[in-house]
Amino acid sequence: MQKTKIKIGISAFIFIVLMLLVVTHHATGIDNWGFSLDHGALLSPNTPWMLEITYMSEPAIWLVMLNLIMLYLFFSAKKQAYALYMGLWLDGAVIIATVIKILVGRHRPLHQLVLDTGYSFPSIHTMTAAICVLMFLALFKTHSSKYRVFQILGLVWVITVAASRVYLRNHYPSDVLGGATLAYLWTNLLWYINQRWLHIIK
């Protein structure tokens, strides 16, 4: 549990620093550097597949799928505690991120390639992708070589989703960093609660 507490502390510190930089309008250095690495154009050959990635990572799709699984676990598999824990994991993260978006009130970047509405920090696309990967890795953790492959593929997926959001200028780079960090913080916080008190997942 000590490692989990360290992870919580580090990720909380990073997220708070990012949020303060955004609120005080001092995140431009990170954002300008990120846009210089990953800034798309409407007629670029990369734009269609970046659009596909951002559509595939649509939070509403993953929320519906995972909540259907949770309903199955709750009513059919008779695993109520397990289902509620998973619901808190993803749905709770989305609620927290939405509240933070409203409180921070950061407007999205100009010149979006595909129009997106709402506030910008943190990126819920990135956070949802990271939560889903972290949830899968936590629930099916082994020490096999296949698990290592899944870890790498999961990391690549989260980075690709984050890159697509910046590429399409739907988010600033600091937004996607904030989304990924919030996912890691929330996951470790819930994991600590599970280890310390609930023992739902062994």
From TrEMBL:
<feature type="transmembrane region" description="Helical">
    <location>
        <begin position="147"/>
        <end position="168"/>
    </location>
</feature>
<keyword id="KW-0472">Membrane</keyword>
<dbReference type="InterPro" id="IPR000326">
    <property type="entry name" value="PAP2/HPO"/>
</dbReference>
<feature type="transmembrane region" description="Helical">
    <location>
        <begin position="82"/>
        <end position="104"/>
    </location>
</feature>
<protein>
    <recommendedName>
        <fullName>Phosphatidic acid phosphatase type 2/haloperoxidase domain-containing protein</fullName>
    </recommendedName>
</protein>
<keyword id="KW-1133">Transmembrane helix</keyword>
<feature type="domain" description="Phosphatidic acid phosphatase type 2/haloperoxidase">
    <location>
        <begin position="83"/>
        <end position="191"/>
    </location>
</feature>
<feature type="transmembrane region" description="Helical">
    <location>
        <begin position="174"/>
        <end position="193"/>
    </location>
</feature>
<dbReference type="Pfam" id="PF01569">
    <property type="entry name" value="PAP2"/>
</dbReference>
<dbReference type="InterPro" id="IPR036938">
    <property type="entry name" value="PAP2/HPO_sf"/>
</dbReference>
<keyword id="KW-0812">Transmembrane</keyword>
<feature type="transmembrane region" description="Helical">
    <location>
        <begin position="124"/>
        <end position="140"/>
    </location>
</feature>
<feature type="transmembrane region" description="Helical">
    <location>
        <begin position="53"/>
        <end position="75"/>
    </location>
</feature>
